[in-house]
Write a structure and sequence with these properties.
201 residues; alpha+beta; Nucleoside Triphosphate Pyrophosphohydrolase; eight-stranded mixed sheet; globular
């Protein structure tokens, strides 16, 4: 099923922070820390192309989950994650970047257990210490974002490069999740990410 998620970012003294939220202990991604987002509904721009529907659904999900209003035109495509066929519930998810809009975060009590603004490095550190659960797409996205000094730089890079497609193979419990040159070793904490450039062997 089609889904969308939005990485809202803001500049900070430590570089930049992104908005992450913890899911309830039920349903998909139980207890995991994620970016706001969810499944695209039939009412999200019916009859339009997939990218438009993903944008509209992403904006709706952000408002429903954290109370912020995002302009769909402000969303910059970052990636698309297509999960392995072994999964019973498969979410074909479009990831977008956007600068955080004005306004206070108002979390939905039904969908958000906790939330915070945090640097990618701090979220990854919490995962490494076993106190935060992350799904592989969230882990890899945070890892790649961590290389940018400012959120505006990450947005500009995504706008220039276009969305990268991840067709993942493997499951976390099997120890390795991969997509092309991206390899995530998940057999033990801390998880280890590798980018194997074909030119470098």
């Amino acid at each position: 099923m089609l889904a969308a998620t939005v990485i809202l970012g803001r500049e900070a003294e430590a570089g930049f922070e992104v908005l992450v939220m913890q899911r309830p202990a039920r349903g998909s991604f139980a207890n995991a820390w994620v970016f706001p987002g969810g499944r695209i509904d039939d009412d999200d721009a019916p009859g339009e192309d997939e990218q438009t529907r993903a944008r509209v659904g992403a904006v709706r999900e952000v408002h429903e989950e954290v109370g912020l209003i995002v302009d769909p035109e402000a969303l910059v495509p970052l990636s698309r994650w297509i999960p392995p066929v072994e999964l019973k519930r498969r979410f074909d998810t479009h990831f977008f970047l956007a600068m955080a809009p004005e306004g206070d975060v108002v979390p939905s009590p039904d969908e958000v257990v906790d939330w915070k603004w945090s640097t990618p490095a701090r979220v990854l550190d919490a995962h490494a210490r076993g106190i935060a659960t992350l799904a592989p797409p969230t882990f890899v996205t945070l890892t790649l974002l961590r290389s940018h000094g400012a959120y505006a730089d990450a947005v500009a890079a995504a706008r220039e490069a276009g969305a990268e497609e991840f067709r993942t193979k493997g499951l976390p419990e099997h120890g390795l999740v991969s997509s092309g040159p991206h390899h995530l070793h998940t057999s033990e904490l801390p998880w280890r990410y590798e980018y194997r450039d074909k030119q470098s062997g």
